[in-house]
Amino acid sequence: MNTELIHSHEEAKEREKNRREYPRIPYIESLWYTICIPDKADALYEGFSLNISQGGVLFTTQHIPPLSSIIVLETDLDTLSKCIEIEYLLFRIQDYLFGKVVRVSHHTEKDCFEVGLSFIKQSEKNREDIQDAIELITAV
């Protein structure tokens, strides 16, 4: 077999393994979220986390949040803080974390949707879309 192909395949596998900035940790817990868009900001949806990292969370739900929408996440922050550092890095208001939907896929076996949520960092809290989401949530 061609050794160039073997090396390039091994390199690709190594890049894939290291492409995540933060390692994922299995984290299976109930969570609730609000989608920060008009006509949905007053609804509370339920989901179940699958894994978490310092960068975000993967969860399942029966409702489809739009890609790029801002979500306010409610979960057990005491337990969550044992898995990731939430005090200084992530933007939160009281017991609510903010995130942006970066991936949605249909999980046919479980008949639900898997949602990839990227946490909003403290350094991003002044973005216009974050301020709009805060205003929308606090108005409800």
Give a written overview of the molecule.
The protein has 140 residues and is an alpha+beta fold. It has a single domain (23-139), classed as Thrombin, subunit H (Beta Barrel). It contains three helices and eight strands. It has helices spanning 3-18, 77-83, 128-139, and strands at residues 25-26, 30-35, 45-53, 56-61, 70-74, 92-93, 96-107, 112-119. β3 and β4 form a beta hairpin.
**N-to-C span:** 64 Å
The assigned structural class equals alpha+beta
What percent of the residues sit in helical stretches (DSSP H or I)? Answer: 25-40%
- Based on DSSP secondary structure assignment, what is the total number of beta strands? 8
How many distinct helices? 3
Rg over alpha carbons? 17 Å
Which percent range describes the beta-strand content? 35-45%
CATH superfamily: predicted glycosyltransferase like domains
Low-confidence runs (pLDDT<50, min 5 residues)?
none
CATH topology (level 3) name: Thrombin, subunit H
Please name the CATH architecture. Answer: Beta Barrel
Order of helices and strands: HEEEEEHEEEH
Query: Which geometry do the CA atoms define?
Result: globular
Provide the domain count.
1
Give the overall average pLDDT.
82
The first-level CATH class is given as: Mainly Beta
Main beta sheet: 6 strands, antiparallel, barrel
Biggest sheet strand line-up: 2-3-4-8-7-5
List the helices and strands and how they pair.
Layout: H1 3-18, E1 25-26, E2 30-35, E3 45-53, E4 56-61, E5 70-74, H2 77-83, E6 92-93, E7 96-107, E8 112-119, H3 128-139
Antiparallel strand pairs: 1-3, 2-3, 2-5, 3-4, 4-8, 5-7, 6-7, 7-8
